[in-house]
């Protein structure tokens, strides 16, 4: 029947409880960008130089997703 509803999974592959209408869903960019160097730090933000990009930018520390091997450090 219309309107259609959708079952979705979270980023860990777990099914999200409930079903959703198309207009309730938002497409987003799922890309990650690699930090080449952390240039400055303050309480909640950091100025980072992105690998492959010229211009650094300020980002919230909470937005960092660490993907490091054991015994390897970000900075």
UniProtKB/TrEMBL annotation:
**InterPro entries for this protein:** Chromo-like_dom_sf, Chromo/chromo_shadow_dom
Species per Swiss-Prot/TrEMBL record:
Rotaria magnacalcarata
Task: Give all residue intervals belonging to the Chromo domain.
Answer: 33-75
What is the name attached to this protein's record?
Chromo domain-containing protein
| Domain of life from the UniProt record | Eukaryota
